[in-house]
């Protein structure tokens, strides 16, 4: 991974969020992941999900690069080893929350639907976020009160060669021909009663990036904190709302009850229920058309 991007990573108390630096970090991670994918094997974790050497490699690099003095780090592959006391302190302090490869099953089997997510949280509230969908060339990053979308023609190109635009909040009427993104859990245990075309995705980062850019209208699924930590600050800036099946809201305030934060629970860090994510005005349209089958 290029030293220039990693050394410029914002972190630590008093340092500001640098959107361009975060985009460079994501681009470096994406290049490294793709360069090592062919030689990387996968194994199954205890929850049945896949993990590769690349997941661990990218997480180790981000763990070394992002946290400044006194900061914490929550990563999908390592938080369980850090212990409950560390996790509780992380929710109270300044903390980076990352998913090195979101959509590992797609990544490991050569599909393009995967992403990388970085979120920065202070006092349990996510302030900034950045994600990349490498094989689409898309980088989304919060900047000030807005969201910037970089689009690269190829990963060998420098970030300066990318097109750059500021995203606008979702607007307009619901379109019957607009795409809905469906998570794996919904595909296996849900029913959708509406005419819209759908795309099944194994990556919340990839699916929600499509929602934020307006390529898709909504996402239906379930996820853990690190899957969405980089996205929630951008969702808030763009008027994209996440609601649980019981009506509860998913917000940047991680401790508001949407996530299971019982460190002794097997469901720790997961949303406590399934969700619909879209513009707030469209929530009734999608939620009324969704049915979840009881698990077990």
TrEMBL record:
<dbReference type="GO" id="GO:0008934">
    <property type="term" value="F:inositol monophosphate 1-phosphatase activity"/>
</dbReference>
<feature type="binding site">
    <location>
        <position position="99"/>
    </location>
    <ligand>
        <name>Mg(2+)</name>
    </ligand>
</feature>
<keyword id="KW-0378">Hydrolase</keyword>
<dbReference type="GO" id="GO:0046872">
    <property type="term" value="F:metal ion binding"/>
</dbReference>
<keyword id="KW-0479">Metal-binding</keyword>
<dbReference type="InterPro" id="IPR000760">
    <property type="entry name" value="Inositol_monophosphatase-like"/>
</dbReference>
<protein>
    <submittedName>
        <fullName>Myo-inositol-1(Or 4)-monophosphatase</fullName>
        <ecNumber>3.1.3.25</ecNumber>
    </submittedName>
</protein>
<keyword id="KW-0460">Magnesium</keyword>
<dbReference type="GO" id="GO:0006020">
    <property type="term" value="P:inositol metabolic process"/>
</dbReference>
<feature type="binding site">
    <location>
        <position position="227"/>
    </location>
    <ligand>
        <name>Mg(2+)</name>
    </ligand>
</feature>
<dbReference type="InterPro" id="IPR020583">
    <property type="entry name" value="Inositol_monoP_metal-BS"/>
</dbReference>
<feature type="binding site">
    <location>
        <position position="102"/>
    </location>
    <ligand>
        <name>Mg(2+)</name>
    </ligand>
</feature>
<dbReference type="Pfam" id="PF00459">
    <property type="entry name" value="Inositol_P"/>
</dbReference>
<feature type="binding site">
    <location>
        <position position="76"/>
    </location>
    <ligand>
        <name>Mg(2+)</name>
    </ligand>
</feature>
<feature type="binding site">
    <location>
        <position position="101"/>
    </location>
    <ligand>
        <name>Mg(2+)</name>
    </ligand>
</feature>
<dbReference type="GO" id="GO:0007165">
    <property type="term" value="P:signal transduction"/>
</dbReference>
């Amino acid at each position: 991974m290029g030293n220039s991007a990693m050394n410029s990573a914002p972190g630590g108390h008093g340092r500001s969020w640098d959107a361009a630096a975060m985009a460079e970090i994501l681009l470096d991670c994406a290049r490294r992941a793709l360069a090592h994918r062919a030689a990387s094997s996968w194994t199954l974790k205890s929850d049945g999900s896949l993990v590769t050497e690349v997941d661990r490699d990218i997480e180790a690099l981000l763990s070394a690069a992002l946290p400044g003095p006194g900061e914490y780090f929550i990563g999908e592959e390592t938080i369980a080893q850090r212990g409950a006391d560390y996790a509780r302190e992380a929710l109270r302090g300044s903390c980076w929350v990352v998913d090195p490869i979101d959509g590992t099953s797609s990544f490991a089997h050569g599909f393009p639907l995967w992403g990388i997510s970085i979120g920065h949280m202070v006092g349990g509230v996510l302030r900034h976020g950045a994600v990349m969908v490498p094989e689409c060339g898309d980088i989304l990053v919060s900047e000030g009160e807005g969201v910037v979308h970089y689009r690269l023609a190829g990963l060998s190109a420098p970030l300066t060669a990318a097109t750059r635009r500021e995203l606008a909040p979702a607007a307009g009427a619901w379109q019957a021909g607009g795409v809905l993104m469906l998570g794996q859990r919904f595909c296996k245990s849900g029913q959708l009663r509406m005419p819209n075309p759908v795309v099944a995705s194994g990556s919340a980062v990839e699916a929600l990036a499509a929602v934020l850019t307006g390529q898709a209208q909504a996402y239906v699924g379930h996820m853990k904190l690190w899957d969405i930590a980089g996205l929630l600050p951008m969702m808030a800036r763009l008027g994209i709302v996440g609601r649980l099946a019981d009506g509860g809201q998913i917000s940047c305030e991680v401790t508001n009850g949407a996530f299971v934060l019982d460190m002794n629970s097997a469901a720790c860090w997961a949303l406590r229920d399934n969700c619909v994510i879209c513009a707030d005005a469209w929530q009734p349209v999608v939620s009324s058309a969704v049915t979840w089958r009881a698990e077990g």
